[in-house]
Design brief:
The structure holds 2 protein chains of 2 kinds. Chain A has 9 helices and 19 strands. By secondary structure, chain A is α+β, with helices and mostly antiparallel strands. In chain A, strand 1, helix 1 and strand 2 form a beta-alpha-beta unit. Chain B is α/β, with parallel strands linked by helices. In chain B, about 35% of the residues lie in helices and about 20% in strands. Chain B is built from 15 helices and 23 strands. In chain B, helix 1 packs across helix 3, helix 1 packs parallel to helix 10 and helix 10 crosses helix 11. The radius of gyration of chain B is 23 Å and the shape is globular. The chains are: A alpha+beta, B alpha/beta. At the A-B interface, helix 5, strand 13, helix 8 and strand 17 of A face helix 13, strand 23 and helix 15 of B.
Chain lengths: ~375, ~475
Amino acid sequence: MSDVIVVGAGMVGAACAYYAARAGLDVTVVDRGPVAGGTTGAGEGNVLVSDKEPGPELELALLSNRLWHSLAEAGDFEFEPKGGLVVAETEEVQRALVGLAGKQGVEHAVVAASELRDLEPHLAEGLAGGVLYPQDAQVQPMLAAARLLELGARSYGHGALRLRLGVTVTGFVRSGDRVTGVRTSQGDILGGAVVNASGTWGGEVAALAGVHLPILPRRGFILVTEPLPPMIRHKVYTAAYVTNVASDSAGLETSAVVESTQAGTVLIGASRERVGFDRTTSVPVLARLAAQAVALFPALRDVRAIRSYHGFRPYCPDHLPVIGPDPRAPGLYHACGHEGAGIGLAPATGHLMAQLLTGAAPDLDPQPFRPDRFPEEPQ
Amino acid sequence: MSGFRHDLVVVGGGPAGVAGALTAALAGLRVALVDSSARLGGQYFRHSRAAQDAPGGAPELDGFLRRGRALAERADLLLGHRVWHVSREDGGLAVHCVTPDEQPLTVRGARLLIATGAHDRVVPFPGWDLPGVLTAGGAQALLKGSGVLAGRRAVVAGTGPFLLPVAAGLAGAGADVLAVYEAARGLGLARHPVLALGKAGEAAGYALALARHRVPYLTRRAVVAAHGDGALEAVTVARIDAGWNVVDTRVVECDTLAVGHGFVPQIELGVELGCGTRADADGSPVLVVDAAQRTTVPGVWAAGEPTGVGGWRLAEVEGRVAGHAVAAEHRASTRASTRASTGAPAVSGGGHGAPRALLARRRGMRAFAEALQRAYPVAPGWQGWLRDDTLVCRCEEVPVSRVREAQRLGATDARSIKLLARPGMGWCQGRICGYAVSCLAGEEPRPPKRPIAQPITLGALARSTDEPTTPNTPDE
């Protein structure tokens, strides 16, 4: 029997398992699919501090940023602390960006319009300026999740971290009120605690325990270009990205997020829309992403897109993740609902979860992330 | 009358697409046909401009070119147009293309016929990425295009009846074909009752050609490695058992190797529209069609290799069946809308519309195609030919060792192997490596997901939802 069962082998589940194993707990990770088969494998690998308003999520992001740097030293995966450059189309937007940067208290540098091309030679003319965030980074999230699980299994003794893939959780084992394990497609797995790290499907897993988590899918498309010689140095995005991230709209919102990867491809995001788990490719969305990228980097006009993919961010109504014990189901913990920031926030989430599981004093106040903060679903 | 410019849009200008388009156009439908090549023909009837301008060559090609000319008089031919996506739109289908000058163009129609053919199925082995190593289809394309293979020392290997025309073509073009190494037991063709009946004539023709050029045809043999410093210089030929495990080997010097292991149907447009798929006799995912070549999605038909690999003759018959069925449904829906406006009850457009003799021919040819697939399977022993550094994916330069590493890290299927190790993420979108990765993952190949079926510049993509420019309608 494990001390902890983690449901979900995505980035957040991997981080929870790694930090729990590091804290001396025996961990079993179960996933109905492979490692990183859900939203982890459908994003860009953002590790951002730049796009967050001051508050608990930014605190979590800053802690996570520090942890990512130390994980990158131990793990064998791509981690690029390339920095993020937010650009403004107008003077007014530039003033708003500078104002936000001042409030965040995050390491940054204001970039004048005349200096933009020193940072990004291919940027369009006529932009009003920007803000550079050196701490923003990019990680290859699938490999990072897999390597972190491997590192946890290798580093903390035999049996510290077990991986059970292709195992679907179908319910919970209870002892009285208390959650003491999971029922799965391959029999019951017992454990001292269960961590729901099921990302966009976190609400469904919570429902199996009879508790409500209002996690909804928020779809995003990404365009991938043919491999190019290095062309874009930072993660470059427009100010609209910040407002879209924080928006509650169910309708389509797009903003340009453009960056090169180590494979030479350029990734182009980002779109947000709440359309359930609709997997139909939308030509209008792809067209908008392309248009916005070309507006930002005119040299991309003649570059070919060779594929696109989409994923479903785990959206919570207040845009904060759900992290911590669920008082409605003792023994059940949640670590999900990170929307588009799950990769960036994963290490801090795992670290915090390990502290909560072992009764250590948490580095951050977990109150803003508590699972029972939402109104109960109307009957 | 539908509100679309075209009653039928056909994607693919090979035997199936041309037959479907011509049949529907002759029945009075307004038809558009889109193909990425500059000329009709597809893989099988690929031909040079000279052949088009001066008929009088092979009778099969002449027949095809005649039908192509008839089609050009009755339908919109959008040649050199690459289809990058298809979508449902306002009760019809939208075929999103890129024109030869990289402009976006959306062709809209009430119905769609998917006739997108197939590409080579690639089985990797050490050295398969050396210059001088060609797929069988690639060699055939070279022969039909420029024919620059004269004087080469060539080996043909792999499995399946397609090796015969490739070897005969190479020999005919002046290459010194050292041998054909067929991995199967070989006598399958003659011993199988259906096979013996079906293609005996054609196979005998190739056999005669090979005999004339003194090309030995050896079975239970395979090329298990290619060698060379920068270009092909020699191959290792193995005797193999039924599971394709190596019994013994020898080295043969050559500078050209054509390898064929059958074909993978191109079904991504159907997959993108949500068409149902099934595993064919050889495990390839193909589109499910009914007796009228209808897919499971209303308004979408498929013919030729996307419904199961069976060669150009079957493809052409299926195209004609689809053309008849589309025309029948078009007539039914036109009548229904007339009735609806006069308050009469609607009828379902269920009729096949195709002559019985055509349906019977299709039945026989399909049985033959399925028997061929069973007679020339790819056996799993090829995985034993691989070395750690053998490339699986050429586009992303992923060796076998990285695939194995991904599996060790928790990639339990082909998709997660792709996510962790990148095979299939490059230019060809897994068309080349997809089969091998599925095999290494221990699963049947799954329907390919390629929302962007062909590369498109970001500039063209950005303008692809602008007010569409649709080509001229046919005169009628």
